[in-house]
Each structure stands twice: as C-alpha cells, then as structure tokens.
Amino acid sequence: MVQKRRISTDRGPAAIGPYSQAIVAGDLVFVSGQIPLDPATGAMIQGDAAAQTERVMRNLAGILESAGSSLDRAVKATIYLTDLKEFETVNRVYGQSFSEDPPARATVQVCALPKGALVEIEMVALRNS
Prior knowledge:
By secondary structure, this protein is an alpha+beta fold. Helix content is 21%, strand content 29%. It has 2 helices and 6 strands. The longest helix has 18 residues, at 49-66.
C-alpha cells in the first residue's frame, strides 16, 4: 500500500486553511495551489500578474525541492486566473521555469482567488530517484 507523507517547509508559504503545502504519495508529489504569498511574512506580494506568477513559481519550486523534487520533474499543472486576458503574461513567466519538456497543463478562469490573488497554480511532480 502506498503511504502518504505531508510536506511542511518554510520555503513556501504556510497553509492558510486545512490543507498541506504538499503530499508525497509513492513517487509523486502533489503540491497544493499556490498564490503569491511571501513565505517569510505570509503577506500577499504587490504587483501585476507577471510579478505574482514569479512569486508563485518560486513558492512551487521551494516546496517541490523540500519534497525531493523540482520544477523540471513536474508532470501536471493547473493554472487558475481571475482574468484570461493575463494568459500571455502568465504563460511567458511560467514558461521560463522549465528548461525542457514542460508539464501537461490546464488553464482556467475563475471568478476569484483567495486574498485577491490574480493567479494560483497547483502542480504534480515526480520525486527524484
């Protein structure tokens, strides 16, 4: 039976609800949706969709690394945007995080995100072997 293990790290913002930053199950890491919170303060960063996406990607990278993985091991991502007009901007910043073979992905528009964020990204990755 596959066991699960909770990941809790200061390399990503603390959970703001009843969820884990990430769960490791077997060879997979499931990272909860990340919004642009500063891990050191827990505060939402100021800035546009590009700045928010950069912070989200740093949060994802830190959590994945703490779980024994990395952005390059990501296999699936879901991006939530409050305005699809920001798609090109978010896509550009997001794409800079992958050296090759970016993960499968879905992008959807939602009416709102926690704390007024413009972008939230969740991810599934393989653990390093």
